[in-house]
Amino acid sequence: RRTARERAADASPATTQRLAKRLVDDPLDALAHLYARVTPAIHAYASLRLGERWLGPEDIVAEVWCRVSGHLADYDPSRPFRGWVFGFAQRVVKEAQRALARSRTLDLRPKDGEATSIMSLIPAAITSVSARVAHDEGIRRFVRWVRDELSEYEREVLLLRGIQGRALADVAKALGRTERAVTVCWARILAKVVARKAPPDVLDPGA
Predict the structure, then answer these.
(1) What's the whole-model pTM score?
(2) Between the CA of residue 48 and those of 51, 57, 103, 199, what are the distances in Å?
(3) What angle separates helix 13-21 from helix 4-11, to the nearest 10 degrees?
(4) In 3D, which of 126, 121, 117, 25 has the Cα closest to residue 77?
(5) Closest CA to 161 of 135, 181, 138
């Protein structure tokens, strides 16, 4: 049986980056493991940004990974993989928000060339992570708690720092706050999150 320390090591940003560096030599295996590792965070992010009234978070997850798989050749292994993936997640969510504002459906049909996406080669046992996450009651409770208990400012700090894993200085700039103010806010949020035992893989281990 694996120890808590071993599980924590597997979830660490360093481990994620080791997997990301393998994308060059063994893209299928590396992407499969990275998919399982980052999907819970994307699902929570989409749920908090969009809610569940219109487009299921699992649809956002699928679109994000489709785009990621189509741009693997552009990935720079010196960059944090999680942050790179969330660049796609932000764009997909913004497209969904614009479509919602116009009361129309976001077109998630396969684009030209996507039929041969590497995602279609990943075993169903791995990609089924998204379906399991969609029905994960722990993630649902966490999302409801964030919506109901945190202020708008705290939610933004949680999304940018805790889920996306962005640096505190970057979060401060995005929110128009001082880095000290964001640091204090994040410490307060983290204490609450730890007390509630947030679901694994939702928060960036390095945050």
Answers:
(1) 0.78
(2) 6, 9, 19, 15
(3) 50
(4) 25
(5) 181
